[in-house]
Amino acid sequence: PRECIISHAEFKDEIKCTSDCRQIPFVGIASSLDSQRDLEGCAFSTFSTPERTGLPVHVNAMFDLPNDRRAIHKDSKWNKLLIKHALPTAYVHFLKEARSHVHDQDSRNWYTCLFPHKDLSPTWKPLRIAVIKLIQ
Question: More exposed terminus of the chain, fewer Cβ within 10 Å: N or C?
């Protein structure tokens, strides 16, 4: 299936890199344009990780990962900043782009399913809250 991918990189005051910073806040959001397909969102850090986000989209960012790449570090200040600040901005840009693909009832149903769900793990809840604040 075709993918709708929107990437966004933004340096906010909360994500300023210091001299010891080796990562940049480059993030992306992706979802299938196939309205008949449910997507179980995963976290990517350039390559896929086994981490399931609970989101209806895939997220890609330069996450802080352990050597085995099995999951993102939950307590990493960097990851928390990406999830709370950079990813929500990209998510809102993604939703605006996805809206341009709504042409009928099926695509309208697909579009409404792209919004972050309420039942997310504590790691991903800040993203949902920030997306809602940015949309309002």
Answer: C
Give the Cα separation of 29 and 23 in Å (integer). 18
8 A C-beta contact, residue 134 and residue 115:
no
Average the pLDDT over 111-127 and give the result: 90
CA 95, 5, 121, 110 dihedral sign is: positive
Average of per-residue pLDDT values in the chain: 82
CA distances from 111 to 20, 37, 101, 105, 136 (A): 40, 12, 8, 10, 17
How far apart are the C-alpha atoms of 9 and 87, rounded to whole Å?
9
Tell me the C-alpha distance between 28 and 7, whole Å. Answer: 4
CA distance 132 to 67: 33
Residue with tokens 């309420």: 118
* DSSP labels, 35-90: TT-----EEEESEEEEEE-SSSSEEEE-----TT-SS--TT-HHHHHIIIIIHHHH
